[in-house]
Amino acid sequence: MSQPTVSLTDVSTYLPGEPIGADYYAQFAESDDLRDNVMFRSPKFRHHVAPDESSIDMIERAAHGLIERHGHDVIEGADILISHTQVPDMAFYGQGAGIAHRLGMRPSWVLDLHNGGCAAFVLALNVARQLMVAGQGHTALIAIAQNAAGQFFDQPGVRRKAQSAVPGDGAAVGLVTLSDQSPVLDIECRTYGEYAGEMTLAFNPPRKWWQAGPGEGSIGFTESKITKVLARGNRQVPEVALSVCDRIGLHSKDIDLLVTNQPNRVFLRNWREALELPPERHRDTFDECGNLFGAGIPINLDRAISDGQVKSGAVVMMAAFAHAGDFAGAAAVRWGGRA
Description:
Layout: E1 6-14, E2 20-21, H1 23-26, E3 45-46, H2 55-62, H3 64-70, H4 72-76, E4 80-85, H5 96-102, E5 109-112, H6 120-133, E6 139-146, E7 170-178, E8 184-191, E9 201-202, E10 218-219, H7 223-248, E11 257-260, H8 265-274, H9 286-289, H10 296-306, E12 315-322, E13 327-334
Helix pairs in contact: 7-8
């Protein structure tokens, strides 16, 4: 008996506020040992979540496109809701239940994923697909909110650092259905537990993240850590993409559109070169949006669909790695067009 076909039917997105130029961070920049590192070369623009804008607000606004195209009933009737928020609005629980309430949903499954990081959309698609194939639902929503740029990285003490100028905020909601409209061809997810914990928060003087104390926490980057992360990211993203290509019988150079997370320009260039793809077949909004973390893949995919960059019948490869390299994933979809 053949398994039912699961499709990534549609995606809609949201970018908060007006674009913020590179000069915004230039005015705060101080001497930083990592200022000239390729990891932190600033995009031209990025967006910041508003001070009073929650991750649930962002997801609700991102869902508008799906509601307009598919109707409230499809969204409200989804059986599965999978969410990922870069900076949870509340420390002790995720946003899944709040998102469900805001969208009028009563899903059987509500899952908040935190370990997927920049590859969260691929991980969520894999979880949704497995649940649906197992008969646990016919429709799923994947909700991703990246809200660290205007909150975490724009703290007065952090925005003076080179790392602060790269991230941007945004949100996306993907619609996954039991149909053959835009079938998911294959997914590869890999966990590299030996690298877990290498992404750290740094405080001066040292303390746990929840303890009160002077100064804000920032990501604990060092030259040595950056070198390791660059090496892992350069290797992991092509590896998971090539694994998917091998199983679906596709040479990497025949991928119609590559959509990745976008930490910096160096990764973007190295990934497409490793997969033998020209720039015009790798969606890149880094200079418009900065590093969108987990929202990068769905926002870039939405842009590619809206711009006509991806045509009906095209094979889209989504690939990303997370944190300091503790997770990576890739998913191939044969795009069938927006209904």
